[in-house]
Write a structure and sequence with these properties.
Order of helices and strands: HHHEHEEEEEEEEHHHHEHEEEEEEEEHH
Strand content: 25-35%
Largest sheet: 9 strands, antiparallel
Number of domains: 2
Number of strands: 18
CATH architecture of the largest domain: 3-Layer(aba) Sandwich
Distance between the termini: 54 Å
Shape: globular
Helix content: 25-40%
Strand order of the largest sheet: 1-7-8-9-2-3-15-14-13
Length: about 375
């Protein structure tokens, strides 16, 4: 039975006021302001329905496939450890039942609508420099109240199309509030002794496409990090958690084009191309390029792996990052088109990364 994490003794109006106070007085972003008052971001935005936000009908596929009408915008997808922001136009939108694609030149998405629960339009006053302006966005949340995806308008976006889209998809129910389900506990991994390790390793070697990996996890009952531990050793190396900074700085210095994947339950967002401006600010590792920003919490990386998967086009090599609960933070690849081998420079760079400290000590 769905339950809300919000204390029902407080009204939605009280929650809205507490959220806005935390946001403005403490100068917090929406996600952090919601956490400060003990709710998810989705619940906080839902409490603002009728004021700062407008509830949209939950016809998510049809609604989202109208986003190209907005023209150039900023797409944002995040998880607890990384934020991925891309400027561009939503193009080539399609879906097969509850799985969708956006295959634009800049905005490249894999969409899992089954996880979506709440959509809203947000129109709020923000300060840029010394000027105040209205910021318009479409925001989508999952059944736990976590942000799935956000679409922010820029000055040169089609604001008339935004207003028309919001009017068209405005939900007749504009009462504040949403019901969320508690996040499920972390899955208990099957003991290694109960895994058909030999069968799994043989299946790994027999892959002809990287997408077959998800089937292997399902068929052999493995978590992703467990699969990497049990993989054929010639295909997997655990590397030092400084690897992401090393690779990004090398890519920036050599103009090596890369792919950066960041996702959550309901969305994966992909950047493909060169990166140039890599900056470290406290725990955050950032790419601050025109049209693409990445913000990644280095201190939340629990393990980093260089992973090679066989395909019909040759091996495809990735750098994969995980948090302490085994959730994927981000994945990095060299830019590669279907039917072509991966870039030799990318493969050489990731295979040269130093081993994780514990492994290096064990081999010393």
């Amino acid at each position: 039975m769905p339950i809300t994490s919000y204390n029902k003794q407080r009204s939605q109006q009280q929650l809205r006021l507490e959220f806005l106070n935390a946001k403005h007085e403490k100068k917090l972003r929406n996600r952090d302001a919601a956490a400060a008052v003990g709710v998810s971001e989705g619940e906080a935005l839902a409490a603002c329905v009728g004021a700062e936000s407008i509830r949209l009908q939950p016809n998510f596929v049809e609604l989202f496939e109208e986003v190209p009408l907005l023209g150039p915008v900023m797409a944002l997808t995040r998880n607890d450890s990384a934020v991925h922001e891309k400027d561009g136009v939503y193009q080539k939108m399609s879906h097969n039942e509850q799985v969708g694609l956006a295959l634009g030149e800049a905005i490249d998405l894999r969409i899992f609508y089954k996880q979506w629960r709440f959509a809203c339009a947000v129109i709020e006053e923000i300060t840029r420099g010394t000027e105040k302006t209205l910021q318009k966005s479409l925001q989508f949340y999952d059944l736990h109240g976590a942000a799935v995806h956000k679409v922010f308008l820029r000055e040169h976006s089609n604001h008339d199309a935004f207003d028309a889209l919001v009017a068209r998809w405005r939900d007749p129910d504009q009462q504040p509030g949403m019901t969320v389900e508690p996040a499920p506990p972390a899955a208990i991994a099957t003991p290694d002794s109960e895994i058909d390790g030999d069968g799994f390793r043989a299946a790994w070697k027999g892959m002809s496409d990287t997408h077959q990996f998800f089937g292997l996890l399902r068929d052999f009952g493995l978590s992703r990090t467990q699969a990497l531990r049990l993989a054929p050793p010639q295909f997997v190396r655990q590397v030092d958690n400084s690897a992401t900074r090393t690779i990004l700085e090398q890519a920036a210095a050599s103009a090596l084009p890369i792919m950066v994947f960041v996702g959550n339950r309901g969305m994966i967002q992909i950047h493909s191309g060169a990166v140039s401006n890599v900056k470290v600010m406290g725990p955050w590792l950032n790419i601050l390029d025109p049209g693409f920003n990445l913000h990644l919490r280095q201190d939340l990386i629990a393990s980093s792996w260089v992973v090679s998967k066989p395909t019909s086009d040759g091996a495809v090599t990735s750098l994969e990052l995980f948090d302490h609960e085994g959730n994927t933070i981000a994945m990095l690849f060299g830019v590669r088109n279907p039917g072509q081998p991966e870039l030799a420079a990318w493969r050489a760079a990731v295979l040269d990364l130093p081993l994780a400290a514990s492994l290096a000590e064990a081999q010393a």
